[in-house]
Design brief:
mainly alpha; 3 helices; elongated
C-alpha cells in the first residue's frame, strides 16, 4: 500500500464519523425497499413511508449520537506532556499533545486545520442544529 498524505489519526476519525452516516443511509434504503415491497404485495403499510423513514432515522440518529459526539470531542482532546525543567534536566517534549496522535502537538500543523475545520462545525451540528431540528419535527 502507498503512503497517504492524510495522517492515520485523521483517517480513523473520518471513518468513525462517516460510518453512522453510511449505516443511516443503508437503513433508510432498506425502509424504502420494504415499503415498496408492501405496496407491490398490496399489503397494508403501517403508516406512510415518510413517517416510517422519519421514525427510523430518528431512532438511528439517537443511537449514533454518543459515538459521533465522542469522536468530535476527541478532536480537541489534548494532554500536557513534560514541563520545562531546570538544569541538569531537560524535558524532551514540552507542550500539549493530541491524544489520538501523541507525536502531534495540539493546535499546530494538521491538527489545527482539522480541529477547526471539522471539529467546530461538527460540535455546532451536534449541540445546536440537531436538537433544533429534532424539536421542529416533534
Amino acid at each position: 500500500m502507498g503512503e497517504s498524505s492524510v495522517p492515520a489519526a485523521i483517517r480513523k476519525t473520518l471513518f468513525y464519523l462517516c460510518s453512522p452516516v453510511a449505516l443511516l443511509l443503508l437503513l433508510l434504503l432498506l425502509e424504502v425497499a420494504l415499503a415498496l415491497g408492501q405496496t407491490r404485495n398490496r399489503a397494508r403499510p403501517h403508516g406512510s413511508i415518510k413517517d416510517r423513514m422519519l421514525g427510523s432515522g430518528m431512532v438511528a440518529t439517537f443511537l449514533f449520537i454518543p459515538s459521533v459526539a465522542r469522536t468530535a470531542l476527541s478532536l480537541f482532546a489534548c494532554v500536557p506532556v513534560d514541563k520545562a525543567s531546570s538544569e541538569p534536566y531537560c524535558a524532551a517534549a514540552v507542550g500539549r499533545y493530541w491524544v489520538l496522535d501523541m507525536g502531534q502537538q495540539c493546535f499546530e500543523g494538521y491538527h489545527a486545520a482539522w480541529a477547526y475545520a471539522l471539529g467546530i462545525p461538527l460540535l455546532f451540528v451536534l449541540a445546536v442544529a440537531l436538537p433544533l431540528g429534532i424539536s421542529l419535527f416533534m
